[in-house]
């Protein structure tokens, strides 16, 4: 059985999905049409498919209002699992590097991710 972090990393492997996530990170909640206009070289149908993958694995939230669908980054769930995994790798790497130079550098825990407040 695949973990939530594995699902998130699979979704992040695609450059178009990363572009979509970056757009959402910079703009907050937006419509699928706005995302389509912002992501170069990809049509509306492809953006919808990518958004479905991101929503299914829990990286993006969807809100329906009338005939529009609004998307925003999900601040919890698989994102936290992926961040915890990356933190453990980075922490181990920093400790190994410090040990290699003969100096133990204290490694502080990461800041807790903050949920994005939305003014809608």
Strand content: 5-15%
Low-confidence stretches: 115-120
Order of helices and strands: HHEHHEEH
Rounded to an integer in angstroms, the radius of gyration calculated over CA atoms is 17 Å
Largest sheet: 3 strands, antiparallel
Overall shape: it is elongated
Total DSSP helices? 5
The class by helix and strand makeup works out as mainly alpha
The rounded distance between the terminal residues' Cα atoms is 37 Å
For the secondary structure, the number of strands is 3
Helicity range? 40-55%
Strand order of the largest sheet: 1-3-2
What integer is the average pLDDT?
82
What does this molecule look like?
The chain is mainly α and 120 residues long. The protein is 54% helix and 12% strand. It has helices spanning 4-12, 15-27, 32-38, 44-56, 78-100, and strands at residues 30-31, 60-65, 68-73. It is elongated and about 60 Å long. The model is unreliable at 115-120 (pLDDT under 50).
What distinguishing features does this structure have?
mainly alpha, 54% helix, disordered C terminus, 5 helices
Q: Topology of this protein?
A:
Elements: H1 4-12, H2 15-27, E1 30-31, H3 32-38, H4 44-56, E2 60-65, E3 68-73, H5 78-100
Antiparallel strand pairs: 1-3, 2-3
Helix pairs in contact: 1-5, 3-4
In short:
The chain is 54% helix and 12% strand. The protein has helices at 4-12, 15-27, 32-38, 44-56, 78-100, and strands at residues 30-31, 60-65, 68-73.
